[in-house]
Amino acid sequence: MKKQTTKKEIRNRFNKIFAVGYCSAWYLLRDFAPFAYSARAEGWACDYYYLGDGICLATGYDCDRLGAEYIKSDLVREYNEKARQIEGFTDEAKEKRAELLGEFIEKITK
Q: What domain range includes position 103?
């Protein structure tokens, strides 16, 4: 279950923060649960996914003021499309999506 947090807490907790737009990595992340979220006056702002090694991925409407590095939309689109083509929720499909996420993390952290 994810807990509400602040952007300041995320900045202090992680060495590297990446951001993608709302739902732009939905297929890539669909087997993984966010550990936290931030809110703003209008409501939900963004979700946070722990990627390991002090790395956080933020996705949502309002990832500003995080100091996050925005990932190029072409790269996100490419990996999200590859994940979309992996159908089902079998252990094999989940493993393939996890491998794909691992490749994605390698690309963004270079």
A: 3-109
